[in-house]
Amino acid sequence: MATSYKILIDKLDEFIRKYYKNQLVKGGMYSISLVLLFFISISLLEYFARFESLGRAIVFYSFLSLSVAIIVKYIIIPLSKLYKLGDVISHEQAALIIGSHFSNIQDKLLNVLQLNKQYEAETGLSTALIEASINQRIEELKPVPFASAVDFSENKKYIKYALIPVGALVIILFASPSIITESTRRIVDYKTYYEKPAPFKFIIENESLTGVQNDDYLIEVKIVGDIIPDNAFIEFDNTRLKLDKEGKIKFAYLFKNLQKTINFRLEADGVYSEEFELSVMPNPIVLDFTVSLEYPKYIGRNNEVLKNTGDLTIPEGTKVKWKFNTRNTRNLKITTNDSTKTFQPSGPDQYNVSQTFFKSANYSIKTANEFLTSKDSVTYAVNVIADQYPTIEVEERADSLSSKRLYFRGNIKDDYGFRRLTFNYKKINVDTAKNHATEMPFNKTLTNDQFYHFWDLSALNIQTGDQIEYYFEVWDNDGVNGSKSTRTQKMVFKAPSLKDIAANTDKANTEIKKDLESSLKEAKDIQKEINELNKKLLEKKSLGWDDKKKVESLMQKHKNLQNNIEEIKKQNKENMFKQSEYKDVDERIMDKQQKLQDLFEQIMTDEMKEMFKQLEKLLEEMDKNKIQEAIDQMKFDTKDLEKELDRSLE
User: Fold this and answer.
1) Would you say the pTM of this structure is higher than 0.90?
2) Domain residues of the chain, as ranges?
């Protein structure tokens, strides 16, 4: 019996749960209908009546209280009973509800519950009879579905009660939403005073009423309604000013140089707007700044401090230190090309920033605080002048007598100065030849200096055919990138070969012979003229004008001959030196060269030179006898000279 009875009780519990679910569904429909009906009613009432703050407070709390009561009665209580919180209907009450629903059951289910209580109270033989009676009735009740006594479909008739207020609300919201929205807003915000609707209203078109300190701010107002006033005014700080009319319904007012938050309201034809607040945010600005320039020590330039100068032209490696004085600033950002760094204050509204520049860049400055970042950034340029390579120019001149003696004159330039100057050379036709460097003096305090150098290659034991490469090199004093150097173009000294020396000697001898033969011919001509002049003077008693001119012409030819002989002597001497510069000259050749040099002396002896000087003086005195005597003593022995010349140049 226990098992059968337990099944019966479970079916009763199932019925009770379904019973309360049904109560919850029905209560939900009641709640929606009543709450919406009350909400629409108070919204309409407020829309047309426009209660004061107290009336709106009473309406608000009444609606709140009634809504809570309805929800508690129709939703909270059935929900709690569904989960068996609090008192719920007993099995006996459930049996009566079920018995009233099923005609074939009537009181049978209730009798089973009563017999069970009697069974539990009795002892002895009577219990068997009670148990048999219970089992009989349970068997009769098994086919009956107790839960079907609750019919959810019966709740459909209550849907119409919920749809009526829902439909009314939708219609109102579609036709005139302000009836619901405005009324609800005033009821909820019952503490705020609301003016009665005017024939027009003010609309602030600005996205936000937030300005920036020291900036201007334009209030843009639009008036909409059935009647549009001709003029509108703004009131703030006990001041009433007329708005600028920019159209039929548009007005504006410009607040200049904002300093603090401003509360204002608008007015037109006695109609006032609500009070607005124009919030003023502190503007982060740079008041001024100084720039300290720390130049690289090696350039020898004094450091500088500039004030409010952003664009800079500086040498490479200069350290730039900024000191910014600001106001209302929480942090400062400096963007250099594509890199942005944020700096915190080093003191009250003060920022110290430093950077060493090695290449040109643009940088911009932006300030910010907890409210905003400065709109405009100031962009400056840093033009970095790179340390240039030094320059060097050299002029070379060889000695007129010896090709082994070279003279150099040069000039060096740099933007900041020099560290080293050298003359370098090495033999290039020798595999093991080393480079030799000679330190050259220069003035370290100058950026443009001249230098001179004499190079005697005789000390290098140069042999015929040797080649020596040489150049000058200068280093600057770059303290940032390291010292840079510049070289002159490499030059090559080539010692002549024995073949070259022989060929040059032959060529020089030929030219000397040719020049000397020409001079001998000229000497013959002069001698011929002397003889002819001497004959003429013998036939005359005195010296005439033509004779004087003839003597002067003779003297000029003599001077020309003298110059030619001196030039030939010089060429011969150089030829002798060049032959002996790179090799030992045969003694026979040296004797010939010396005899040739003696020939020059014979052509133009010192006595002959002195005679021509005396003749020049006598010509001024116009003494025929003395001039004739002097001319008679002037004779050249050209035949012997020609023979000696041929022997010397063989």
Assistant:
1) no
2) 2-173, 197-281, 294-385, 391-495, 499-648
